[in-house]
Sequence to fold (187 residues):
Amino acid sequence: MMSWPKERKAESRKKILESAARLFTAYGYERISIGDVMKDAGKTHGGFYSHFSSKNQLYAEAIQQAAKNSMNQHGDENLDQVFTNYLSMEHVKLDKASCPLAFLSTDVATKEKAIRDVYTHTFTGFADLIGRSQRIDSQEKSYAISALLIGGVAIARALSNDTLAQAVLNSCQKICHQLSSIEEDSI
Fold:
């Protein structure tokens, strides 16, 4: 009998985190209130503090949740497929799980150190995943490719011209492929 409330509380917390991950990546910290998140999750505002101590805690955990969701959507063993999935207009237009690295970079830059630390940890995890490919032979390339992926989506999202946005994504994809090609001299 005692496990039902714990399971229910865990399910409620998960729903709140999923809503927060989606809403924060789409609209940022300032435009989303605790009430917005709770309403989206189908919960009452009053129940928030039984799960989180503050909006900042929710935001930090939502960044991690959004990163997991994005990796499930965009991650792939095939690096070329990662480039295609991540650098897509579907990703830019929020049709796929949104990566908090691309969608929250400027939002996070103004937040407290604890939130920037979560973002930093998320970035290094992302770069490490890129670096696991046998085609990536240095941390420098892993960071550069990660920055191209994240920056390409962030810039394309900000542009009002879809043709230009697609050109930016295509350019980033081309350079990612070039950076990830193992040259004959290095074999």
